[in-house]
Amino acid sequence: MDTGTASADGASLLSFQATHLWALIVAFHLSFIFAFVMGANEVSNAFATSVCSGAIKLRVAYVLATVVESAGAILLGYKVLETLRFKVIDLDMYVNTPNELLLGQVAIMAGAALWMIFATSFRLPVSSTHSHIGGIIGFSLVMRGTAGLHMHNVINIVISWIVSPILSGIISAVLYVLFDIAVLRRKDPVKSAFISMPIFYFAVLSFITFMVIFRGSKWIGFDKTTFWPALLISVAVGAVSALMFQFVVRRFLLKWLKNASTRSSNSNNNNSDELHAAAAGGGTSSEPPPPPAPHSNKQTKIDFNPPGLLKRILPDPKRTNNSQTLRLFSAVQVFTGCFTGFSHGSKDIPNTIAPLATLLFVYNNVHVPKPQETPLWILFYGSLGTCVGFWMLGHRVIRTVGQELTEINPFCGFCVELGAAITVVIASKIGIPISMTLCIVGSVVSVGAVRGSVPVNWPLFRNVFIAWVVTFPLSGVFSAAAMFLLKTFFL
């Protein structure tokens, strides 16, 4: 009986499933491993600046990541899933050989997972998106050559990988300068921060709500929501969140700041000790942080010549920022960290389960899938593997992005996370599978360069950049090797 037919009766379906049951079992394991390693590597990138700036404890990041990563995958992951499943390879070329497509998904997951395991073991923040796309191309080149790929879509995806960290870095740098001018340079920066926060919450919550509900996922019934209803609902949600901050959260934060001034605050050193203790299996440090330095606002004469104007716009690297203001941003950074995790879940969890979803469809129907919604339970399965990986190994990569690349304080972390999250959410809504890793690192380097007072670890950035460049071809090579073996022994 030919298992490569496009349709099958009940008997042939049972025969096909019996023949490929082993592949289904292997695929479930590989998908979980891929999600696990992605959680250890890339979820760490999403929460690295929050943890290493002192905004949240590592254990709190574990809990928050579990919630927001899963929510992002469910609410916004559908577009990226559609791209990965139907817009990279030409599925029509497998209409008469669905068994080849099924085994190809095993090769994709094997190649991507193997590279991610290798990179995570060396604490390199690489991209599951690069790994996945490389795996797809490796499988396709073995089976159909370049004719099996939608090359224009592949080229667009690769271009987005170059543009996205630059765009994320620009957004974060602009946010840093704007908030620096509007808040940190004021005579009373704490008061200025409280004035700006309702505007911030209004803008961000409106943006997130609009991205979720405007022509959103069929899973939650938002697929028919048009522009104006989505805009009105988003503005209403943003307005309510701004009012909640002004009349509820503001009072809590004022009280918290007052109490925090008399006790030890979160510090980079404490979180560094916690991360090292997590790596060694020990406890956390109880040594108090050094006392905050006084705030100074140095007034300079305005020079409208280009060099003088640029110097006026950019932050003064010698200025000491108000410790209470930084403490306030550490509280706000909990929100931006969740926003980053949400955006990451919308993009990278689909990476880990897209091959499994395709394989499962072929296994159950013995024909090539058409564009459709992926079953919700598969997304939950990917979320489970992702969160388990972050809980168990996330501390390894957090140190690379959040501490070793450049020093991160709560204000820097706030701008880094916000810029990266905005970039990734827009890309996820469009359906472009960009890399959160590239966006986070691009924002960290950009803010570090604009900040000026703390050097960027350029040798480490070089190593991270090399890891990015080799991820795409190496995962493709691993996938091609796996597909060659599968083709030799099972086709």
Spell out the key features of this protein.
491 residues
Give a verbal description of the structure.
The chain crosses the membrane at residues 20-39, 60-81, 101-121, 158-181, 193-214, 226-249, 376-393, 408-427, 434-453, 465-486. Sodium-phosphate symporter. Residues 262-306 are annotated as: Disordered. It comes from Globodera rostochiensis. Pfam families: PHO4. This protein is an all-alpha fold and 491 residues long. It has one domain. It is 75% helix and 0% strand. It is built from 16 helices and no strands. α2 runs parallel beside α5 (98-121), α2 runs antiparallel to α14 and α5 runs antiparallel to α6. The radius of gyration is 24 Å and the shape is elongated. The model is unreliable at 1-8, 264-268, 282-293 and 296-300 (pLDDT under 50).
